[in-house]
Amino acid sequence: MTLIRMNVNGSAKSLEIEPRVSLLDALRERLGVTGPKKGCDQGACGACTVLADGRRINACLALAIQYDGCQITTIEGVDHPLQEAFVRHDGFQCGYCTPGQICSAIGMLSEYEAGMPSAVTDSGGLGEAEIRERMSGNVCRCGAYNGIVGAIMDVAGSDAR
Amino acid sequence: MKPFAYVKPVDIGAAVAAGAAPGAKFLGGGTNLVDLMREGIEQPDTVVDVTGLPLSAVDDLPNGGLRIGALVRNSDLAADRRVRARYPVLSQALLSGASGQLRNMATVGGNLLQRTRCPYFYDEASACNKRDPGSGCDALDGFNRSCAILGVSDDCIAAHPSDMCVALTALDAVVEVTGTGGTRRIPLTELHRLPGQTPHIETDLAPGDLITAVELPTATGNSAYRKVRDRASYAFALVSVAAGLQIENGAVTDIRLALGGVAPKPWRARQAEQLLAGGPADEAAFRRAAQAELASAAVRPGNAFKVALATNTIVATLRELSNEGTRR
């Protein structure tokens, strides 16, 4: 067992864990932070997306021990216009992917603002194609993609459809 | 997941020593290894976390090339201004792989050593010579849509999954490795092995060999990456093409071509390059070269389509590059 310390949503946390515990399990099962969801547990769905030191990652493929000393933000620690926008645009049906979608979108918007290119980047701002490509790591089995994209475009101030 | 000991060395010598111990495995971003450990396919006794090592820089080389630390995250490398300007094929390949979240985690060294996504490698109920040597290969007569057609053997047809490696192969990248016997440099084309009768041995690396950097020679001109897959994003390649092309007076003066999704290793298309070098830069020449490269393809019913798909993708990528060359 190893003692690790993380700042989770603004609170200092320390916990004794085995090295094989994922960040997702550490959050959900040890700290009771159940916003990040376990969808596939293999990095294929994005429901577990959290922000580690501001960068979006898949918490299911992260060993918690590798994030000792990091600042972790989950949906519980988010206060962002995207949350209202998801409601306005019907960006969900069952809601299971939503915490990951919103954390991912926050990370994506900061990546975009920092100049991160994408596979579809040409010249035309953060339009629908850009958002769909940059958010492809978050799967929604209800198929609420149009609402999700609409919510993100709304917050990003995109106008090009 | 089987329990393991965890160490996080802070210098390369200690990492190499720890990695050379029996049952040890290096851990970078974890996006592949953690998944494989959870599935029981990898069962290391000791995980050597190398992310505390000082290998996260991208530096200009005096000869105009670039030195990329093994711990540079895939997203940071894709965004690097020098990579985007001088090696667009590399930035494009990185951005076409995985997702934003995974690119933020995955390292260059880990990407070089990521393992196949052949479904039978992942399914412990199946025969797989790579996972369990001597057990057979259920992919041969199974669901082999994703599998390789070049460089395969009767023991394994698993495809190498990386996009980054395809671009690096086209760029003549050299991998710097530090092991128990010191530091050496391996051309990327010689890092990975073809399966033959030992598909479980995937590289020329020995226990303890730690990839510390990748070096790129001076960029030679325009380059591009084109990836074809079953959905528009966030999927492994059925076929991908990394190409660099320079044309003067209608003739090819420099050609680099590498293929992904079709071989057990990032595939440098030397035959096609030889046919194109010095010749006309037109569609007929592109097609002849592509067909020659694919002539030795060994297909199965599920992946026979890859011959035509790879041929057409090579032609399309070279056409795009030659048109860009003309427009300049």
- Which CATH class of the largest domain in chain A is shown? Mainly Alpha
Q: What is the domain total for the residues of chain A?
A: 2
- How many helices of chain A in DSSP terms? 5
CATH architecture of the largest domain in chain A: Orthogonal Bundle
Report, as a whole number of angstroms, the end-to-end distance of chain A: 52 Å
Biggest interface, CB < 8 A: A-B, 36 and 34 residues
**The level-1 CATH class of the domain at 222-326 in chain B:** Alpha Beta
Biggest sheet details of chain A: 5 strands, mixed
Secondary structure class of chain B reads alpha+beta
Mean pLDDT of chain A: 96
Task: Provide the succession of SSEs of chain A.
Answer: EEHEEEHHHH
Report the helical percentage of chain B: 25-40%
- Whole-number mean pLDDT of chain B: 97
Stretches with pLDDT under 50, minimum 5 residues of chain B: none
Within CATH, the superfamily of the domain at 222-326 in chain B carries the name CO dehydrogenase flavoprotein, C-terminal domain
Beta strand count of chain A? 5
Question: Could you say what the CATH topology of the domain at 222-326 in chain B is called?
Answer: Enolase-like, domain 1
Q: Largest sheet of chain B at a glance? A: 5 strands, antiparallel
What is the distance, rounded to the nearest whole angstrom, between the alpha carbons of the first and last residues of chain B? Answer: 55 Å
Strand order, main sheet of chain A: write it out. 2-1-5-3-4
Give a structural overview.
Chain B: This is Xanthine dehydrogenase YagS FAD-binding subunit. Chain B: Residues 1-221 form the FAD-binding PCMH-type domain. Chain B: Pfam families: CO_deh_flav_C, FAD_binding_5. Chain B: InterPro entries: CO_DH_flav_C, CO_DH_flav_C_dom_sf, Diverse_Substr_Oxidored, FAD-bd_PCMH, FAD-bd_PCMH-like_sf, FAD-bd_PCMH_sub1, FAD-bd_PCMH_sub2, Mopterin_DH_FAD-bd. The complex is a heterodimer of chains A (161) and B (328). Chain A contains five helices and five strands. Chain A folds into two domains: 2-76, Ubiquitin-like (UB roll) (Roll), CATH 3.10.20; 81-158, [2Fe-2S]-binding domain (DNA polymerase, domain 1, Orthogonal Bundle), CATH 1.10.150. Chain A has 161 residues and is α+β, with helices and mostly antiparallel strands. Chain A has a five-stranded mixed sheet, sandwiched between helices. In chain A, 32% of the residues lie in helices and 16% in strands. Chain A starts with a strand and ends in a 5-residue tail after the last helix. Helix content of chain B is 30%, strand content 20%. Chain B is globular. Among the domains of chain B are: 5-51, Uridine Diphospho-n-acetylenolpyruvylglucosamine Reductase, domain 2 (2-Layer Sandwich), CATH 3.30.43; 222-326, Enolase-like, domain 1 (2-Layer Sandwich), CATH 3.30.390. Chain B has twelve helices and twelve strands. At the A-B interface, strand 4, helix 3 and helix 4 of A face helix 2, helix 3, helix 5 and helix 6 of B.
